[in-house]
Batch of 4 targets.
Target 1
Amino acid sequence: MNADQLIAGADEAGRGAWAGPLVAAAVIMPPGKRIRGVKDSKQLTPKQRVALFPKIVAQAVSCSVVCISPAEVDQLGVHQANLFALSHCITHLDPQPALVLVDGFAVDHYVPTKRMIHGDARSYTIAAASIVAKVVRDTLLQFMQQHDARYGFGAHKGYGTAEHARQLKQFGVGPWHRRSFAPIAELLYTKH
């Protein structure tokens, strides 16, 4: 397969969550082949995403995943953490593609990249990356749920829901929370 014909898709999951990692994925799918059902991960049920995940990984020419911890998100800022994760995913693809389509973000990289607004709904390769990133992140959140069930990570996946806010008020801020995010920072501030 000629590398100058390869196009990758890159996307992230968990950017706006109050807790848990930010996960980015980059995927090169073989040209001319499609897996039935692959579309924007937000349009799929968790069960559908989990069923598609091994098919994507098995068929991919290359697949790369990068996880940024809550502490790193706090240190870098969410935007820079997102760009860092996407850039590192692209760097770890082997072979390197001729072009990377990135959902929503302009990424400065030595491989040419193209920003696509709503790319996860418009590009097959970005959709595949969105599924990989979402399944990896959801799996990590299930692990967090098993480790500490107080916060209900298995249900809200670390996002800012009313239930998550209630759990934070009851149990306080945990090690998985992003302390730089306003709702968490406010709780920490009011405790002092």
Target 2
Amino acid sequence: MLKPVLFEQLELGEAFGPVRVVADDAYVKQHAFAADDYHPWSMGGTAPDGTRVVQSTALLADLLRLLNERYDPHFDRGLHQREQWWHGGAVRVGDELELEGRLTETYWKRGRPYFVVDAEARRVSDGVVVLRHRAVEAVGIGDPEALGSGSSQDRVEGAPSRRVAGAIPEGAPAAILPLGAGSAVGSALPPLSKRPTQTQVSVFSNVGAFWRTTHT
């Protein structure tokens, strides 16, 4: 029986998986629709090495959902605070992957409980870790009216702000796509704007498994 995502129910060190995933054609197309990412290297074309590759972000949702192997997604009212990932290699269409994760931290900050899940995706054929992922989530969103009200404002007077303003530093060089070994560190990426539909959000949030969440 799945547990509700409550702080007192979280078990430090709890393991999730392993879960097997086959990155087949349907897997690629589902993510392409959800993320509006139809890069030719994935959608029928080939990368420079002659293979068809899976979008680099396709595995992120699956690694994040490992938590729901033990915790009920229908009663998860958390709020994501941070996402980090590290790529270890390309995933080709047809690869079989094994996903595993572990609850590595629980703590309180500014009067709210948090937990951290570290996870990885490993290619079954050669054991290479193609993606490592860390998710930090607050347990329960609390008062919805307080979201976005500035409760996470900088608290130390005189300290540099840790807020991300989205401003491009003056004089930053413009990056030329595609990025390569000669791309300068600190280059400004060209603007990217997407407007997802509710259907895309629902597909990304596992509506195919009939999950009823704040997203679907």
Target 3
Amino acid sequence: MATPKTTALDFDPGLIPSGTLWLPRASLSACLRGAMVRSTVGASLGDEQRLNHFPATPLCSLSWWFEGSSVLLHGERPGLPGALTGTHLTMPGRWVLTGPQTRPGASWCPGPVHALMVMLMPDALHLMTGLEPSNLIDRFVDAATVLPPAWIAMCQQVQDAPDDAQRLEKLEDFLEPR
């Protein structure tokens, strides 16, 4: 069973503890590098607090939205905090697969969101799905259109699970024999 790996830190009173990092089972560490759950449900946030920043990374990711949505941001955010500018691209699906990213990026959640992102090693993604990570570089794709049927069934099971611990357990149970 997945166990949240968090520490009890003092938070700046202006921040809400909206994210949780989960570490995979040791047996999955060569393919699944980690998972992050973010929930802002029930929080009153300004635009700047709904921004998500992502580093450039050689890893691939698979994300679920259980509540709310997110848009990809391209361009600058000059001027006042909350003044979103540039191009906004809607995420391509409820489950999104990304390849390695050659540059940092950002997304913005227009309202409350509860989401899960898992980071996968590119070679493991290839071995388990047959997908070429090099074809996914700097791309965000609807996972339902590219993943094999067994993976789509797993994505639905994760989506339907009642809580984050059970979601991670379903994902890990699926990956373990692979």
Target 4
Amino acid sequence: YNINMGVTYVRYKRNGASLTKAMQNLHLDQATSDLTILCDSETLPCHKVILATRSDVFKAMFDAKSGFAELQDGVLEIEDFDAHTMKVFLEYMYMDSIKTEDINCKVLMAAHKYNFERLFSECSEHLKFSIDKENIFEIIKCAYLVDADELFRKAVLAIKKMNREEIKDDLDVLYKDCPGIGQKIADYFLFNAN
């Protein structure tokens, strides 16, 4: 005997915001924030639970045993990124999306610093297909600093296609700024034909 005991679910119209929308509505909500990020003299209200859920670096920072001063006064001062980068970073934390025009090396570096894998992956994937003469040296330096090997490889392949005389000065600056990058580029030239 074959008895079909299938269950049918009926979907009813639901009123009110979804969980996703409710979390998005918390973005920059001063009334419910329990942490303020101070960056370039701008204050960005945040929620520890959102930051800790998206980044294990923030989770460790907010652990009561960590002893970070940010826990006492509720202010986290960020000096190594500009306010625009932090706004984009935080918007992604809450919204899970980023505008194409906001994807850049600074956001990639923030995602790396705070171990925000989803944003890191999205930025590095986009940058792989955005390499041009204007940004190639910024991308290759950033990819080197954050160990984004596939992005680094793509940038090196783009350099191989450029006129050596035109880029000589830019390469010299890059080599001076990032000791060790010249060897890594040379290794790609020698050992990675494509």
